[in-house]
Amino acid sequence: MGDKSFTISRNQCGDIEDLVAILSDDIRGNAREGGCHEAYCVDFDELSADPNQFLALICDESGRPCGTFQLTVIPGMARRGAKRPQIEALRTASWARGTGLGPAMFAWAHEWGRSRGATLAQLTSDKQRPDAHRFYESLEYTATHEGDNLFF
């Protein structure tokens, strides 16, 4: 964040309210996040038990929550057994956008993946988030695959 500093830590159960607030502070997340925090606690417990998962809470130098992301190391057979971090639910609080936090979060996530043997990073993003897509392109991400979802 330029001359500002921030911390990235593994999200704790007590951080769930902050996490949900950041996920909701987004044009798409506003409609699909929020509500019962108990549901988030169940998922949080499962994520916390998995060593291939890292759910992050990012705070500015004053300790104010300003971002989050979830990283998942995916081992694979393709690409000669390449491991890859899947970057999901990456959000910055609206007040922190444009501060350099986003690129710093990605740099941290990439290093986290490399330290676990990853050779490429991947992410998915809602097609209705053109600003996010421009941002990812500025970080040299290339839209090489088409993804499909089936919601249950």
UniProtKB/TrEMBL annotation:
- The organism of origin for this protein: Rothia koreensis
Acyltransferase listed as a keyword: yes
Keywords from UniProt, A to Z, are:
Acyltransferase, Transferase
Kindly give the PANTHER family that the UniProt entry links to this protein: AMINOALKYLPHOSPHONATE N-ACETYLTRANSFERASE-RELATED, AMINOALKYLPHOSPHONATE N-ACETYLTRANSFERASE-RELATED-RELATED
Stretches that traverse the bilayer: none
GO terms assigned for molecular function:
acyltransferase activity, transferring groups other than amino-acyl groups
Tell me the Pfam families matching this sequence: Acetyltransf_1 (PF00583)
SUPFAM superfamilies referenced in this protein's UniProt entry, alphabetically: Acyl-CoA N-acyltransferases (Nat)
Q: Which PROSITE patterns match?
A: GNAT
InterPro entries this protein is in?
Answer: Acyl_CoA_acyltransferase, Bact_Acetyltransf, GNAT_dom
* CDD domains documented for this protein: NAT_SF
Instruction: Pinpoint the N-acetyltransferase domain residues.
Output: 6-152
Instruction: State the protein's name.
Output: GNAT family N-acetyltransferase
The source's domain of life comes to Bacteria
